[in-house]
Write a structure and sequence with these properties.
It comes from Brevibacterium casei CIP 102111. It contains 10 helices and 3 strands. The chain has 210 residues and is mainly alpha-helical. α4 packs across α6, α4 packs antiparallel against α10 and α5 runs antiparallel to α9.
Length: 210
């Protein structure tokens, strides 16, 4: 499916923010009709990964500081909701939290930075999933995909990704111990620091952009 292939290329950083997406070129590359490419691009617009303008056509989305603020406002609502719902979480749901936190630490030890970022996002998705809503989970997945656009412009992705997995582990341990207030306080600080780092990167990329 063209949408999936393009989405994966964007999330892996193979199509960096600002890259023009021309339907004729993509049609040839993926050996599909231009109509199929256009439909895929429309769906990627709805995912928040592509922008479409009358004069310039389609391009991989370039996040603004306003986008980042909006993403993090949504993250706070969803993730704090998951923490508050953790009192009724099943053992299996809590086990997913534990496994996701450990996965991030293992990926960092192997210096697999993209996978480290993926594991961290999966940890936070597991926190959101404690709320028990598939619609909420789907919405968070879209936010996580948009965060990948920010990861792609980090001047040093290794340095950035290495920061978070220990803090994920702290949040996980607090949740597993039933210390929801402490977990929420830790998450609040975590999201504030993460948002600030991404805003700095977005501003730096905007200055460097011709």
């Amino acid at each position: 499916m063209v949408r999936t292939r393009l989405r994966d290329q964007i999330l892996r950083g193979e199509l960096p923010p600002g890259t023009r997406l021309r339907d004729r070129v993509l049609s040839a590359e993926h050996e599909v009709s231009r109509n199929s490419v256009r439909e895929a691009l429309r769906l990627l617009v709805s995912d928040g990964l592509v922008t479409l303008t009358v004069n310039s056509g389609a391009a991989v989305r370039v996040l603004t500081t306003e986008d980042v603020a909006d993403i993090y406002a949504a993250r706070r609502l969803l993730e704090f909701g998951g923490i508050r719902a953790s009192s009724r979480a099943s053992d299996a749901e809590l086990a997913e939290i534990d496994v996701a936190a450990d996965t991030g630490i293992r990926q960092r030890a192997q210096k697999r930075w993209q996978q480290t970022g993926t594991a961290s996002l999966e940890f936070h998705a597991a926190v959101v999933a404690l709320a028990g809503s598939e619609r909420v989970n789907h919405f968070f997945a879209a936010l996580a995909a948009q965060l990948r656009l920010a990861f792609a412009i980090m001047p040093d992705e290794a340095e950035f990704q290495a920061l978070w997995v220990d803090r994920d582990r702290v949040i996980a341990d607090l949740l597993l111990a039933g210390r929801r207030d402490a977990a929420e306080a830790e998450l609040m600080a975590y999201l504030a620091d993460s948002e600030a780092a991404i805003v700095d990167a977005v501003r730096g990329a905007a200055i460097a952009r011709p």
